[in-house]
Specification:
heterodimer, A: 171 residues, alpha+beta, three-stranded antiparallel beta sheet, 8 helices, 5 strands, globular, B: 469 residues, two-stranded antiparallel sheet, 12% strand
Chain lengths: 171, 469
């Protein structure tokens, strides 16, 4: 469970991603990339079968919603499932971090599945897998299909090109 | 007459391994005899639940064998729909038997401590995977095929394509859940949480359901669905799981014992890692000392089980360290801390509905922050004393309608309608639709420590007064 200060950190991620994020998966993966790049909010991530995931962030987002730092709207996707859209309600950062904003904006417009694949490959690389893309495809064959793995690799390269305190590793 | 190996089980009666006729079952019978699997005999399925339900002493070994038995039933359901033999069926059966292999002593409480100290071998999923891929169990599994052990490990880890066979191991109708919801009820002696198992099995079908991530569609996946006549059985199944949380899994006394155990373990690991192992009261050769010194070694975690911890309590109760000795005595003698339930207090001070609403979550988080601050200050002045308060926060949803991040189609219960469509049970059952997430927030203190009790109450009252507008 996250402390209340983490609610502000969760809201700040939404704010820095341009004011809104579509989907819990996307919120999680954006936060993960920011963390690895050294411009994160201090959330701790573990590997789940849907990729890097932070219980702390999930609970912080709930608190942020209750404190009206963000709003969360649930919608029905065209495939029948529910997904959430988060909107930031906190004021603009008086001293924004350009690298964080650039990176978050790159991800907020990405495809959720491709972002999950890229985050998974990065997590596996940090776990010591020498070929994390192959391992990602092996673990998530359904998601890696239909050219999404290649798109995830391109997305990763774009994220890696953002100058951040900790450069993302070459995968 | 072909030879059978049989286990007598209080839930399923006879569980059979057809060792003469079915090569896989002969292999799995040998797997049952291995040291890592036999270790599960000494790990209780419900951890400390026997402080509340003395009958709930059943082991993870018996549960695992029960899951194997239930998985065979589920595979027979699949056989009705799929004529050709699929190798994934064997993988799923082995995975069902081995899904709990990596649990440490008192399972989830041990994992919580592991997370606090960054001990990777306290993560049961990781340990299960390692043991299936590379141990004497892996050697047995490879007699089925060279890649069989890895395929089984992947199913247990949730890797690979989502198929009807992976649904046997992980889905709303997986063999694990279908076993423990009944077994835990039977062994605790509770009379609620009953499910209509045979009717559920009789009405299980295979259906194809859409699958996606957030707003993006991926395709469809095959999973278990229920025929229309099983709507009430489905409802009772969800209710059964829901009722187990407050009365068994998250009972306040069980959780109180877990919290004491976690603090005892954390203190022991800290002392051992600081070179003060002798202050724990344990000999240098004790498995817990070895684990704390070499937590990355799988051998170290394999030497741990519930009985090792129970045995250690007598030694730790005589420890020179006041914290260790007091906590060990408490656990040994069931002298648990007293509990103040914040959400119950909110229900009393405001309304029942308020107790679990999002605003209450925020109030609880603020109160937790205040309690933690107060306790850290106190601990700073009394570094060698046992904790003055213990905080327990739990949240469990009985049933999530489609695709919260941790959900997805395998976590749905779909009912076939009269018009041959699949519809989520939450849309067909008003009872399921109205179920709220179970949430508890408790603060424990030592009996007689009225100062702590007053401080907890004062912080709680102040927090509730700051209810979000």
């Amino acid at each position: 469970m996250a402390g209340l200060d983490y609610a502000y950190r969760a809201a700040a991620i939404v704010r820095d991603a341009g004011g809104y994020i579509v989907g819990r998966t996307k919120l999680q993966k954006i936060a993960y990339f920011l963390e690895v790049a050294g411009i994160g909010s201090g959330f701790h991530f573990r590997y789940k079968h849907y990729g890097p995931y932070s219980e702390q962030l999930a609970s912080a987002a709930q608190h942020a919603s209750a404190l009206k730092l963000i709003t969360e709207h649930e919608s029905v996707a065209n495939w029948g499932g529910l997904y959430s859209t988060f909107h930031s309600c906190i004021p603009a950062d008086p001293a924004p971090n350009p690298a964080r904003i650039r990176m978050a904006n790159e991800m907020v417009n990405a495809d959720a599945v491709e972002l999950e694949l890229a985050a998974t490959a990065l997590f596996l690389a940090k776990e010591g897998f020498t070929d994390p893309w192959t391992e990602t495809a092996r673990r998530k064959p359904d998601k890696a299909d239909a050219g999404r793995l290649d798109n995830a690799k391109e997305l990763y390269q774009r994220l890696r090109a953002v100058p951040t305190p900790h450069l993302l590793p070459a995968l | 007459m072909p030879k059978q190996q049989r286990i007598r089980d209080p839930l399923h009666d006879l569980i059979e391994f057809n060792v003469d006729r079915v090569h896989l079952e002969a292999v799995l019978w040998r797997v049952v005899q291995t040291r890592p699997f036999q270790r599960l005999r000494r790990i209780k399925q419900l951890g400390f639940s026997d402080v509340v339900y003395p009958g709930a002493t059943h082991s993870r070994l018996l549960h695992s064998v029960g899951v194997f038995h239930t998985a065979k039933r589920l595979l027979r359901v699949i056989d009705k729909y799929v004529s050709a033999k699929n190798p994934r069926a064997d993988q799923a059966l082995a995975a069902a038997l081995l899904h709990d292999l990596g649990h440490g002593p008192f399972s989830h409480a041990f994992e919580d401590v592991g997370e606090r100290f960054g001990l990777t071998m306290a993560d049961h999923e990781k340990v299960s995977e390692l043991l299936i891929r590379d141990s004497e169990i892996a050697d047995e599994l490879r007699t089925v095929g060279s890649g069989f052990a890895n395929d089984v490990a992947d199913i247990v880890a949730g890797n690979g394509p989502k198929t009807i066979y992976s649904a046997v191991v992980s889905s709303q109708f997986d063999a694990d859940r279908l076993d423990y919801v009944r077994r835990d009820r039977l062994m605790t002696g509770i009379k609620h949480a009953a499910i209509d198992f045979e009717w559920l099995m009789e009405n299980l079908e295979i259906g194809s359901v859409p699958y996606g991530v957030d707003e993006t569609s991926i395709g469809s996946v095959e999973t278990f669905v229920l025929g229309s006549k099983a709507i009430y059985a489905a409802e009772a199944y969800v209710l059964g799981l829901f009722q187990l949380y407050p009365t068994v899994c998250f009972h306040k006394a069980t959780r109180g014992a877990e919290k004491i155990y976690a603090e005892l373990l954390a203190r022991a690991i800290t002392l051992i890692q600081n070179g003060s192992a002798k202050n724990t009261g344990l000999p240098r050769s004790h498995p817990l000392v070895k684990f704390a010194q070499k937590p990355d070694k799988i051998e170290a975690v394999l030497a741990l089980d519930d009985t090792v911890i129970w045995g250690a309590l007598a030694l730790m109760a005589d420890s020179k360290d006041g914290c260790i000795s007091k906590l060990a005595q408490r656990l040994r003698d069931r002298q648990l801390y007293k509990c103040i339930d914040l959400r119950t207090k909110i229900a009393r001070d405001k309304t029942d509905a308020d107790a679990t609403c999002p605003a209450a979550d925020t109030v609880c988080a603020g109160i937790r922050d205040e309690l933690t601050k107060w306790h850290e200050e106190w601990s700073g002045k009394n570094p060698d004393a046992p904790p003055r308060i213990l905080i327990d926060e739990v949240e469990r949803s009985p049933y999530n309608l489609t695709n919260k991040e941790t959900g997805g189609p395998l976590n749905q219960i779909n009912i076939r309608t009269a018009g041959n469509h699949l519809e989520d049970v939450a849309k067909r059952s008003n009872v399921v639709a109205e179920l709220k997430t179970y949430k508890a927030f408790r603060v424990y203190h030592a009996e007689g420590d009225n100062e702590a009790k007053d401080k907890i109450t004062q912080i709680m009252d102040a927090g509730i007064r700051q209810w979000p507008a």
